[in-house]
Amino acid sequence: MANPPPPHSGPPSAPAPAAKDEKIPTEEQLVLDLCNSELREETLYLLSKNREKFQQDIAPLLWHSFGTMAALLQEIVAIYPSLSPATLSQAQSNRVCNALALLQCVASHPDTRMPFITAEIPVYLYPFLNTTYRTRQYEYLRLTSLGVIGALVKVDDHEVIAYLLSTEIIPLCLRTMDLGSEISKTVATFIVQKIILDDAGLKYICATRERFFALANVLAQMLEGLVEQPSPRLLKHIIRCYLRLTDNPSACHALRTHLPTVLRDGTFNDFLEKDLTTRLWLHQMLHNIAMANSGGGAPHTGLNRIMGM
After folding, report:
1. d(C-alpha 215, C-alpha 97), whole Å
2. Where is the signal peptide (predicted)?
3. How many CB atoms lie within 10 A of CB 209?
4. 174 touches 215 (CB < 8 A)
5. Which residues contact 181 (CB under 8 A, 6 or more apart)?
6. Superfamily of the domain at 206-309
7. Among 308, 299, 309, which Cα is nearest to 209's?
8. pLDDT tens across 222-252, in order?
9. Which CATH number is 26-165 given?
10. Would you say the pTM of this structure is higher than 0.85?
């Protein structure tokens, strides 16, 4: 899934207050049990499995409970030695992914999102995104880590984007877009899309020829793969990335000669037949490039930078 699942809420029924009173001690006890190393594995599983039931309560509780975030970070750091050489077991992967699912709750909550970033918790996940192994346990680890980053970017926040850019998240996303599974590619592309929709993100990716072509080449490679194995969700995010790139004059000019043919020749028309929004994005992107093509004139300094002139 490209988007982290939104929390659900609704008006309580008449007996709900009593039920909530019964639930809170159980929830609090589970969080307290995270600090007990003997109970932690089972507790991680229970909290992760039931996190939707806790809704908005769980994130502040995790963040403000003494020692809880340290316990979650211990789980993450403990498997670093298994990343290289590749010795990670499926059981280890499942356990740390349960911890990552709880971090996603913290990253999603408006009251804990910025403290989460200020504490630089996301960088603890970057070693997982830097792996190149394609086995199930590493792919699961990569996808769950992306879910945490996806939760951060889902809400448009310039501070979040500025932080992620400062930590060089884009190269890690490009790595996943290159070698991950279809769903990991989708989430990583969603993250890049959200970053470049911010003006600072677009400026970053178009600042140098190397950055622009690193993204353009990966997008093109993913499109080639979609010809054989279609994925409407992934295609949607790829096209939105291309459309956003045309908002930068340098990138728009560069795409005149570096836009994959499959986006011009109707290859994906059947997949876009029922997706009006993505069809409009594609038509607008092609229009922007055509206008840039008809503009003529000497290339400006930004184009010189991207094209290596």
Report:
1. 28
2. none
3. 16
4. yes
5. 134, 139, 143
6. Leucine-rich Repeat Variant (1.25.10.10)
7. 308
8. 999 999 999 999 999 999 999 999 999 999 9
9. 1.25.10.10
10. yes
